[in-house]
Design a protein that fits this description.
This is Non-haem dioxygenase N-terminal domain-containing protein. This protein starts with 30 loop residues before the first strand and ends in a 26-residue tail after the last helix. The chain has a domain of 80 residues. Strands 1-2 form a two-stranded parallel ribbon. The chain has 117 residues and is mainly alpha-helical. Helix 1 links the parallel strand 1 and strand 2.
């Protein structure tokens, strides 16, 4: 499919999940939140409690029960990896950049432009 980046259709390399590390590193348990319970009675409230707990304890969480297939998830990672593999001058094109000041949160923002507040 043609895009802003290339007028020609592109073939994506399939993203491959990284192998688990063999290095003994400190780690924290990450909450796993199953959103398949969203439409059950009390499901929204229970999920809100789980999310609040995850955000307040570790700040991280993993979501399962989305209904997406492994193929759909892999495709999204493949698209993201293809973009990140592009040369910096292409990613820095104005039409591909996000501009938080203007409320545009979609696009690329170079790590060198990020500020920790």
């Amino acid at each position: 499919m043609p895009s802003l980046i290339s007028p020609e259709p592109s073939v994506l390399s399939t993203w491959k999940r990284p192998a688990p590390t063999k290095v003994d590193l400190p780690w924290a348990d990450i909450s796993i939140i199953d959103i398949s319970t969203f439409d059950e009675p009390g499901g929204k409230e229970k999920l809100a409690e789980q999310l609040q707990h995850a955000v307040e304890t570790t700040g991280f969480f993993s979501i399962i029960g989305t209904g997406f297939t492994d193929e759909e998830v892999t495709r999204q990672y493949s698209i993201g990896q293809a973009f990140m593999n592009l040369p910096k001058d292409i990613k820095d094109k104005p039409e591909l950049r996000c501009d938080f000041g203007k409320g545009n949160y979609f696009g690329y923002r170079a790590a060198s432009l990020k500020k920790i507040i």
